[in-house]
Amino acid sequence: MTADTAARALRRVLLDNGALTALVVLTVALSLLSDDFLTTRNLLNVGVQAAVTAVLAFGVTFVVVSAGIDLSVGSVAALSATVLAWTAASDGVPVWLAVLLAIATGVGCGLVNGALISYGGLPPFIATLAMLSVGRGLSLVISQGSPIAFPESVSRIGDTLGGWLPVPVLVMVAMGLLTALILNRAYIGRAMYAIGGNEEAARLSGLRVARLKLLVYVLSGLFAAVAGVVLAARLGSAQPQAAQGYELDAIAAVVIGGASLAGGVGKASGTLIGALILAVLRNGLNLLSVSAFWQQVVIGVVIALAVLLDAARRRAGTGAADVAGTGSGGRRKKAAGLALAAVVAMAVAAALSLWNPHTSGARTTVGLSLSTLSNPFFVQMRAGAEAEADSLGVELNVADAQNDASRQADQIQNLTSAGVRSMIVNPVDSDAAAPAVRDANKADIPVIAADRGVSGAATATLVASDNVAGGRQAAKTLAEKLGGSGRIAVLQGTAGTSASRERGRGFAEGIAEYPGIEVVASQPADFDRAKGLDVMTNMLQADPGITGVFAENDEMALGAVKALGSRAGSPVAVVGFDGTPDGLQAVEAGTLYASVAQQPRELGRIAVRNAVAAARGEKAADLVKVPVKVVTAENVAEFG
Amino acid sequence: MSAPDELLRVEGVRKAFPGVVALDGVDFDLRRGEVHVLLGENGAGKSTLIKMLSGAHRPDAGRITAGGREVRIRSAQDAERLGIATIHQEFTLVPDLSVAENIFLGRQPRRFGMIDRARMETAAAELLERVGVAVPPRTAVRELGVARLQMVEIAKALSLDARVLIMDEPTAVLTSEEVEKLFAIVRRLREDGVGIVFITHHLEEIAALGDRVTVIRDGRSVAQAPASTPEDDLVRLMVGRDIDQRYPRESGEPGAVLLSVDGLTREGVFHDISFEVRSGEVVGVAGLVGAGRTEMARAVFGADPYDTGTVEACGVRLPAHDVPAAMAAGIGLVPEDRKGQGPVLDASVADNLGLVTLRSASRAGLVDRPAQHTAAGRIAGRLGVRTASLEQRVRTLSGGNQQKVVIGKWLLADVRVLILDEPTRGVDVGAKVEIYRLVNELTAAGHAVLMISSDLPEVLGMSDRILVMAQGRIAGELTAAEATQDAVMTLAVTDPAATGNRETEESRDR
């Protein structure tokens, strides 16, 4: 009898909350598919991995409930983190003051957003889009493009309590409770529902709508700042490029949680569930070693399914929230059908995971955490690594961090949970990878750093090309081609990345030896071909007399070639970096004068060889240099 | 069984929503060339019935036949195929498209895949001619007044070759002249053989226009009667009991001045408005639509700015354009546009009732929700709001109950002067009387009411004094004793400024 009523109550809760159903289905499916999922340690990891998105999403919940939108939260989080690191790293500033200043930064951004919307009459979308750009820009300005490492005292914020309870999880729970309190009990929270539901009715009921909306955006900024502090503390460093695109994750979490973008509806618990769904999904896909490309497809599908489930529930139950037991059978059937669809989606994910045959327990598994796979260089590095793993008969579990240091920390954690024997880490950022690598070390998993080093954690070996030397060689090649005099432009990579810093430094050192050459322009194009094209076009507009171009990677160099049109090759010499297949083809065609070729396949191959050796307990060299070579039309045939 | 001229028959239709049985056995039929009036209180089930005929809802039981054949209407497209067109209370027109495009939306005549504007506009002009509106087909719908919007809706229905035209309270938003025009068009359609389902709360319109009446009460069709049935009998059928007095005003002695408006002017909208409202008084504001009554009321309440003049409440001069200040001085406003400005539709009854008192129920930024809930329960009981629970969403309530919630939030705030703007528009007879009793309670307790209304019998029946506005000015003031329909209308059509204002008014309307 009681068991029966309890079961019925549970079914009601699940039917009344589509997102919760989706979370339960996901959790059950993942525990069946992976033995590593349902462990205390892994669940705490999921909590840590959800924390930043959840805290951002709590802030966005206020905005969405009051029928607004906040696109700036990711940038504001990065800016607050940068301010925290910058002030904490200055002498004589105590940690608490640095944290306070970071929070004040978020509040300030929120104030500006709110003022623009409430008193400037800007649509929230535009005002916060502007802040997205301004916040990101300011954090680059303050940090001068480089990550700022934390003093030890600040990193403790991202640590654990009592050795097992992670502080980020505590912060998430505390901010969640605060959100629930504000939404349910506070004057401003109740006002948010009224404003979001019917702004004119709220105004005519005496609510000071403009002032209240200002406060809503201030709250959102405050929460973004807290998220930024958690993010940076966990990584032990603040990156100007952190939390890119997190605003979309936050909005997705809020909507998955049952809020309406039209305003007036939304709950703290729903938002938490939304953030957990995203984190559980990413964690599970890592554990299952699903192909990095398919992961994004699966995540998109599950987001759509979760919201569909909730929408179906709403349609079926219009006005039924307070009437129990009258639901028609059709509604149950529909909910069940959609739950089934979610299961099917998970089955697809499982099937995908089988494409990477990893089931035989006898084989050694090696993890590979790549900074990105949207750049041919790293795609080739993965290809080399996979080829080597095949020939050595080991399993390779690849994760793609999408150039996000925080996501990489999650993935290193997940690889650790999945019990790999050794791990290759190609850090998005050298400082930020350290805490997660230290955890791996604690679990006795040797870590090989690839392409970039990890600072502040022990690695067995560093396998890298020498970027600084490459930059110097590029300078020499370009200068000699130009006969020691000319006007040149530099296309810089993504500000704040180590590749851009090192190549830029090497090039600057090298070019300084040729006083006849003048660098007339130096602008970032983010390692991106399309941006390279745009930036080069603008530079030519400003100075048509440019005779040489150095691009910090081949993609941008190819963009520059496009911008130069028939002038590429002669009279304008373009030198790229990386020696990607496209780049080499252009060298062969003569439009690209030279490329400083790294050998990404070789890099991947050597990294795997070292990782397997480390897994067997063999000692290797601390540093393995993969040679860098200048490729011109003369020797391009050797490289194909 | 079915007569040859029968267009539509509904038999024993039932429809339940979770928690509510909306229809519980409704019979109804419609013949060619008749106006069949559907009469019933708000919430009786009229809307559910017409939504069923237009494809928005499907019946749980019972059958619908069209021309003797049983049909299933699953979507708006199905309804269209059967020749059933509906004109809803909320118009379904796209404001920024032209009249012609709206009429043919989704069915624009095409030539080589491109829209044939010339043909579309000629066809639209013919239809507009048929409904007697002289509007160029290229006019943007946004520029039209409410009466013309309705005519465009009718033209759209005609373009679909509708044999059944359902009109949901078409006269609620029209002035009496516009109502006459609408009736002329409806009569012409009837002569053309169209069957018309007509919903109205104005009993006098039944005899003027209708042929038969079906009365719906509590989800059942309780009677079918000829349109010539005496109004009192119809009311008895509709409410299920006698309503002894439609306007139960109990006047008392007016006391101290609570609201004093002097020389209030907003250029181009209202001019030199001066009046006083005393404790215990109901002051009615009559006038044609567009006379500036709503705009004046919003300015007094601080919702809109004004250029010159003063507003004093209980002896305190109020700052312009400051709603919280007006509220603090004891003024409340129940706005004209109920759906758009009254309740927060997706919030609960309790939350809506507590909206005005949210600030005063807060300590240190936190709202005392249990106390708010108790207060909401008390006021909902006093107002007789029909709701399953205080947590029910206001959207699911009938119009009359929604209005009670909007009034209720002001009663909780202990308002001294309540401005009611069209308080009973779209509200049924029973709920109307309940609202009037509330007005009596307020004035008996020494409060005052300023009531704007286009419903002349209501203004005459409930006011102690009547201000008549015309073209943004006060054209005159009548005591309850001297006020008659004729006296009010005479003032309402005068030109108080006696300048060229009338010209601009007309050109704006065109």
TrEMBL record, chain A:
Residue ranges of domain Periplasmic binding protein in the record: 366-619
Protein name: Substrate-binding domain-containing protein
Cellular compartments annotated: Cell membrane
Annotated TM spans: 12-34, 46-64, 71-89, 95-117, 124-143, 163-183, 214-233, 292-309, 335-355
Record keywords: Cell membrane, Membrane, Signal, Transmembrane, Transmembrane helix
Gene Ontology molecular function, alphabetical: carbohydrate binding; transmembrane transporter activity
GO cellular component: plasma membrane
Pfam families attached to this UniProt entry: BPD_transp_2 (PF02653), Peripla_BP_4 (PF13407)
Domain of life, per lineage: Bacteria
Family: Belongs to the bacterial solute-binding protein 2 family.
Topology term for the membrane: Multi-pass membrane protein
Organism ancestry: Bacteria, Bacillati, Actinomycetota, Actinomycetes, Kitasatosporales
TrEMBL record, chain B:
MF GO annotations: ATP binding; ATP hydrolysis activity
Gene3D superfamilies: P-loop containing nucleotide triphosphate hydrolases
InterPro entries in the record: AAA+_ATPase, ABC_carbohydrate_import_ATPase, ABC_transporter-like_ATP-bd, ABC_transporter-like_CS, P-loop_NTPase
Keywords (A to Z) from UniProt: ATP-binding, Cell membrane, Membrane, Nucleotide-binding, Repeat, Translocase, Transport
Highest taxon, organism lineage: Bacteria
Gene Ontology cellular component annotations, sorted alphabetically: plasma membrane
Transmembrane segments: none
SUPFAM superfamilies, per the entry: P-loop containing nucleoside triphosphate hydrolases
Residue ranges of coiled coil: none
Topological type in the membrane: Peripheral membrane protein
ABC transporter domain boundaries: 8-243, 238-496
Annotated compartments: Cell membrane
Name of protein: Sugar ABC transporter ATP-binding protein
Lineage, highest ranks first: Bacteria, Bacillati, Actinomycetota, Actinomycetes, Kitasatosporales
